[in-house]
Design brief:
Elements: H1 30-52, H2 80-90
Length: 91
């Protein structure tokens, strides 16, 4: 196992692809879709880097609050798109 003392540098490149149709009829601008795709692809790179780190290597680090907000203790993540879909169907 070899390890280098130099930090790894990543260059994340924006990609573009054809617009995907939405089932809800919402129209997103090409810039919006490009930004979402960029964030998604970059996040996948971060997750891959976290999993591939070897002992002693420095890389992405997960932020954990030292004093978590007690009001958020029972918070569970949810899909905003699904929530919006349910709200528009019930209207």
């Amino acid at each position: 196992m070899t390890s280098s003392s130099a930090p790894r540098m990543h260059t994340y490149r924006r990609t573009s692809s054809p617009r995907s149709p939405t089932s809800t009829g919402e129209l997103f601008t090409p810039a919006h879709e490009e930004n979402v795709r960029f964030i998604h692809d970059t996040w996948l790179c971060v997750l891959r880097d976290i999993k591939s780190l070897q002992n002693g290597e420095r890389g992405p680090q997960e932020y954990v609050e030292k004093n978590p907000n007690p009001h958020l203790h029972s918070f569970t993540p949810f899909d905003l798109g699904d929530l919006k879909k349910r709200n528009t169907e019930s209207s």
